[in-house]
Specification:
Layout (H helix, E strand, L loop, with lengths): L6 H12 L4 E5 L2 H13 L4 E5 L5 H15 L4 E4 L14 H29 L3 E6 L12 H21 L4 E8 L8 H5 L1 H9 L12 H8 L10 E4 L9
Parallel strand pairs: 1-2, 3-4, 4-5, 5-6
Helix pairs in contact: 1-8, 3-4, 4-5
The structure holds 1,4-dihydronicotinamide adenine dinucleotide (NAI).
Length: 242
């Protein structure tokens, strides 16, 4: 589980643990990861922390080595780490664009490819879940790099599904609508953010626990014929035309 030190990744790690998975929590902030490991263990689950930067392939491989040493071949990989990129297309500089692409697309690629190669080498079937966004399906003004990165994650998911199905590896994406986390905390606390929530069909943000069920479905045998799909969890946000 990448990006487990906060927000969606934190909630999914706890939810998957409650569903019976042994969890390797991955991110760059070790102290936060150790805290999460303790919470999971106190709830009767099994977890280890592996510090890694998803944009660095050596760091990703090291995390998988640590995961394998603890629990054997990873058979569920959740590529969740991501950052926001909030600026108008005209104003987005190359450094901001590259940072968003590096984390949101290259990071998913690195983790998904490493997971898949190891599953194939071990002859282990598995499930890879990429966390995209409703902004990979539709667009909003002022978030060009983020939208492009998440659209690419959805297409990568479909390509991975086609290339990996022969090995018994399913690859699906989850496309969340808005859930309050560190990635958007400031915006949803602002007047503009509060007004935006009132224009959403659901008139509320998602609760992090509301992502757990869909991810457990994709991770488990309950979703055994789901492959290459994009599961939207957004309170109908993406269906809105204006
Ligand atoms: P967050 O900021 O709370 O969590 C992001 C996580 O990714 C953190 O643990 C962070 O440390 C980690 N991370 C960032 N760069 C990393 C790197 N290079 N290497 C390793 N870990 C790294 O934000 P949130 O909301 O939990 O985001 C999780 C995913 O969900 C992201 O991919 C985001 O784009 C996606 N998402 C979030 C939505 C929301 O409303 N919160 C909506 C749609 C998608």
């Amino acid at each position: 589980m990448t990006g487990a030190s906060s927000g969606i990744g934190w909630a999914l790690a706890k939810g998957l643990s409650a569903a019976g998975a042994r969890i390797v929590v991955v991110a760059r902030r070790s102290e936060r990861l150790e805290l999460l490991v303790r919470e999971i263990e106190e709830s009767g689950g099994a977890a280890i922390a592996a510090k890694a930067d998803v944009t660095e392939i050596d760091s990703v491989e090291q995390a998988f080595d640590e995961a394998e040493a603890a629990f054997g071949t990873v058979d569920i990989a959740i590529c969740n780490a991501g950052i926001s990129g909030v600026s108008n297309f005209l104003k987005t500089d190359a450094a901001e664009r590259d940072a968003v692409f590096d984390t949101n697309l290259r990071g998913v690629w690195n983790v998904g490819q490493s997971a898949a190669r190891r599953m194939v080498a071990a002859g282990v079937p598995g499930s890879i879940i990429n966390v995209a966004s409703v902004l990979g399906l539709g667009a909003q003004p002022g978030v060009a790099s983020y939208c492009a990165s998440k659209g690419a994650v959805i297409q990568l998911t479909r390509s991975m599904a086609l290339d990996l199905t022969r090995y018994g590896i399913r690859v699906n994406a989850v496309a969340p609508g808005w859930f309050k986390t560190e990635i958007n905390d400031d915006y949803f606390a602002s007047e503009a953010g509060k007004e935006y929530i009132q224009r959403m069909p659901s008139r509320r943000l998602g609760q992090l626990d509301e992502l757990v069920g869909p991810v457990v479905l994709l991770a488990s045998e309950a979703g055994s014929f789901m492959n290459g799909s994009v599961v939207v969890v957004d309170g109908a946000l993406n269906t809105l035309v204006a």
